[in-house]
Amino acid sequence: MPRTAKKNPVDNIFSLVTAAASFSVIILIIGILYVLLSESSLAIGKFGIWKFLSSTDWDPVKESFGALTNVYGTAFTTLLSLVIAIPVAIGIAIFVTEISPNFLKGPIGAAIELLAAIPSIIYGMWGLFTLSPIMSNHIEPFLKKIFGSVPLVGILFQGTPMGIDILTASVILSIMIIPFTASISRDSFNLTPSVVKESAYAIGATKWEVVKNVVIPYSKLGVFGGIVLSLGRALGETMAVAFVLGNNHRITTSLFDAAATITVTLANEFTEADTDIYLSSLFYLALVLFVMSFITLAIAKFFLLRAEKKYSR
Amino acid sequence: MTREQIRKTEGFIALTLSTLAAFMGLFWLVFILGDVLVHGIKALKLSLFLNDPAPPGVEGGGLRNAFVGQLLITVCATLIGVPVGVLGGTFLAEYARGRGIARIISILSDIMVSVPSIVIGTFIYAVLVRPIGHFSGWAGAVALSIIMIPVVLRTTEDMLSLVPWTLREAAFALGAPYYKVITQVVYRGAATGILTGILLSIARVAGETAPLLFTSFNNSFFSLDMKQPVASLTVTIFQYAMGPYDNWHAQAWAAAFVITVFILLLTITGRLIIRWRYK
Q1: Helix ranges, chain B (H)
Q2: Which residues of A touch B104 (CB under 8 A)?
Q3: Domain edges within chain A
Q4: Which of A41, A60, A308, B243 places its Cα 20 to 30 Å from the Cα of A275?
């Protein structure tokens, strides 16, 4: 920046205004943290930190609240959706970078990214009216027939398939996060120097061997960052799951059970909370979610920055 | 089988699966959009835009209040979010270019872009709804603008960084102070990019529901008063889709159709502009 240019008084004002605008991001983060902390102080005082996180109670009548059922639901749906989404997303990235003819690369990539532009409420509504009946009538009975009697795995497939359950919610979440993982993986794959790939081809490797042994190892930092970023987004997704998860505050083991995530609990109960401790516990839940997703997203950013640094060398 | 055959078969299977994955992605896109299209067009009537909601369970009525409310909230959010975002991005790319603080704010903004929107709803509820005593359109607009600021800020920063430094030097050489260089040279060079970023950020917040649930809430009557609860399409879709009446469901599909088309058009326009301008 040229030092002489700063002497102008209007310039000083303009630089201060822009500085204030950019510091608003920091102020917002600190503000959100502070407000959530002070709003939940009543619940923090009553339930403590560890007791709140480990209690399965969620009883507005007895005014006893714990986060475990919500955190469990969030973790369960998020992890299951990642299990479904990661192979598909990486498959898409492989197709777009290595297999697809050139004229299809752009359109298919753009189409997948359009999935990310559809608002989450549309996903939720589509899930409720279209996907949920398909799941309960066809896919879930089928899964139950195959896996229901298998020891250990069978636990996941107990109960009556209703379509309003963990599995349906996870499938919708996975569709929502596929574009994020896929486009970051694609960008990372594209950064593999073609010289390295060509050397592998030259010693007789097949296309899949090049992808598996050269491209993926080379770009694993970026792909991993993309996966963690998707995890962070899935943690905070509200509307897509609010329609199809039920709102069930119990620890359940079957994929066919209704559950509650932090976001779904907030969406359904926030305006109904009639006592101070109830509302304060909901703020406490929001605080837990904010901290969880902030840390996850920070980790994702860390890996993506490391990847960027590595490739730019 | 010889080793070569095993390697070839393995490769064939893996590549086929990848191709299937790509088609699965396309399948979901076509499935979801097709579904919204079919159900939405069926329920799309002129009365939807002209009438206000009928009492629950009564046939007819429209969503005029929600269309207008959505527009009002989104425009107000844009009016708050865009100036802050553009000015903030200007600071990062110009005055603080290359400094540690620019990097920190840039990283924090990237994180803020993905922070759960429902948390922002609870935050605004605590600062703007409860102290005042009732839900309001302004609270909803502020919640959306908080989501918008980091998006606009980051794209502005990126777009300003693309403007060649020599262009600024040319202006400095004429004796222009930095603010004039920024407003008259740098902004002009980056205008298309910044506008695209704004378009995409509007597309991003127009479909948000979670931050509006506890801020602008809902209103079954037509209202232009931003100090009162204001209906929005997204919250109405949530309420109607979860409700028990068939005509509510139909109207929810129609609303979903309108909002999806609007957002996809904005997104596609934004991307086309980027491609046309920067590639």
Answers
A1: 3-43, 46-50, 64-90, 100-114, 117-124, 137-162, 165-173, 178-181, 187-206, 210-213, 233-242, 246-278
A2: 26
A3: 4-39, 41-312
A4: B243
